[in-house]
Amino acid sequence: MLHLENIVKTYKVGDSVVAALRGVSMQFRKSEFVAILGPSGCGKTTLLNIIGGLDGYDSGDLTINGRSTKEYRDGEWDAYRNHSVGFVFQSYNLIPHQSVLANVELALTLSGVSKKERRRRAAEALEKVGLGDQLHKKPNQMSGGQMQRVAIARALVNDPEIILADEPTGALDSETSVQIMEILKEISKDKLIIMVTHNPELAEEYSSRIIRLLDGEVLSDTDPYAPEEETEVVEDRKKKPSMKFWTALSLSFNNLLTKKGRTFMTSFAGRSVLSALR
Ligand code: ADP
Ligand code: MG
Question: What's the pLDDT band for 257 if we cut at 50, 70, 90?
Answer without folding.
Answer: very low
